[in-house]
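Page header: ASSEMBLY MODEL / two components / 468 residues total.
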Amino acid sequence: MPRFDRLELDPSRDMPDDRGDERAELDRDEHYWLRLADSERRGLYENALRYYSRSLELDKSQVKGWLGQVQMLIALDEIVEAELWARKALDLFKNNGDLLAGRAQALCRGKDSSQASAACDAAMSQPNAAAYRWQVRGEVMIVTRSSVDRYCFDKAMQLDPDWLVPLEIAQAYLYHGYPSKALAYARQAVSKGADEAFPWYFRGVCERELDLSDAAVRSFRRVVEIVPNHTDADRQLAELNHQGWSLLRTVRRLFRR
Amino acid sequence: MQCASCQFENMPGIEVCGCCGSPLGLQTLAIDVHPPRAGARTKQWRRRWSPFRSLYYKAREAGRKRWLENVEAAVLHGIPLGILIRMVIPGWAHIHLGRRRRGLLFLLPWLGLLALSLFFIYVTLNTAPISRYGGGVTLRTFGNMREGLSLGGLFLGLAFSVHFASCLSLARLQGIQTGEFFRTIGIWLIAILAVLYSLFSMFFHYVASPI
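Prediction written out in full:
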């Protein structure tokens, strides 16, 4: 018989301490913060960036944390900062393929296509090319107007079947002004993650960009069904309900790519 | 000790990875892990200027491809920059390369032709009022004003030919064949010389014009 089994201790008093220990242990676990950041990067970029920074505070040697920060800065449209941060990370992890790809993406979004091509080539020359590097290569191909962008994106989706890959491809297309191509990839993301709100939301954004108002309303309603208090979707729906005919929009539709 | 970047297993006590050169003791390094951020206004400003930035990069790219690459190709074809600069005065580069006699052979006729050109333009412009009243140097010497001016232009054209011939001779001295010369920098050189001699002509007219 164990020695302390018969002691009359209040179990309700022990529970919070246990949970507190568990919580404190999780707070010290950098992988926990990385997992949290990965779950938040599906639309909640500010939170994801904060979690990546938290994981790096615990362990600076995680390339994934540095890369995540660069990617989040790009997603938040802080291109100059992302490029600077990628260079800083590359000082620590020399010739790291993923970080080079991150820098290439930042340069690409900053419209410096020649530097982006050079960084992307350097990234591809490193071993173990992951989906992200192919994705960035495809984006560089969009900017340089090369016809092999589709091949690179197919390769990226082959390497990583997650719906986040087609969604990020769609984001790249939309950023560079190709909403119709973006919509095709957003649809693929929706077909892979139909129960997630973010692919539906982004599909709605693409449809709205193409002036497909009815389809956009359907997509945003689906977002609200999945996440009832989705602020952005509610705002988009309100804007769509109140918008009238516009000459500028009609002219823009004629010159859409 | 395993490298976080390339997973290479290093010997204990080493500070830098032997495979990729990344620092191994990252935990002990004092680095700020919080990235710099841009404010909302900065982002808005950048978005507004984005098309201009794109245009700037495109222009830089085009410039690098068309102009600089042609000049670089010329330098790579065996003509160093010092020689290219000395081509401004015919014979100077020859003298610099130790071909003094050939250099003087280009330089002296060129100077003579320029002087003749200036002389004819000067004489024509300064004696024109006399010729208008049925007398004067121009009428007696060259017939009329137009003939005097065209003689000035003719000598300037001859000076241009001597200049171009000196450049061609220089290219041959550097081991570049005539066809290759025309393919690489010949066209550019003709254009530059044309501009240069137009400026010469304007300068001579300015110098020779009556006060």
